[in-house]
Design goal:
alpha+beta, about 20% helix
Length: about 130
């Protein structure tokens, strides 16, 4: 009997960031008491993005020690949260746009605590001395 029950269950898991078409970061800090409905409203009203797209939406608190990731996964929304105990998430607080699009590589680095916003700019030389 128990085997029959587990055979029909779908086990949800966090998807890898590489599985998403787009990754969006909400530049401004948010109140982390917001749940799925509150974050979905930010995506729709402030970020002006499609909620049910193959995208993830990332949010951070003012202290930069909490991050929430919202995405739509086949049958409903999923919300993932990470809390840092002794450090802060690097965040694009100086970005001009309210919504920052990131690559999956940038998001993986961000989750590992690496500041992708201070990368060296590509330099092109006209001639060599």
């Amino acid at each position: 009997m128990a085997g029959q029950i587990f055979k029909n269950l779908y086990f949800a898991k966090m998807r890898a960031v590489t599985e998403f078409e787009s990754l969006f970061i909400h530049r401004d800090f948010i109140d982390m008491r917001k749940n799925i409905n509150g974050l979905a409203l930010i995506v729709k009203e402030e970020m002006k993005l499609e909620l049910k797209s193959a995208s993830i939406f990332m949010f951070c608190n003012r202290k930069r020690n909490l991050m929430k990731i919202l995405y739509f996964d086949k049958s409903g929304f999923a919300l993932w949260m990470k809390k840092l105990e002794c450090s802060k998430f690097p965040w694009p607080k100086d970005a001009v746009d309210e919504v920052v699009e990131a690559s999956s590589y940038d998001v993986e680095m961000l989750l590992d605590g690496i500041n992708v916003w201070s990368k060296f700019k590509e330099v092109h030389f006209e001639e060599l001395i």
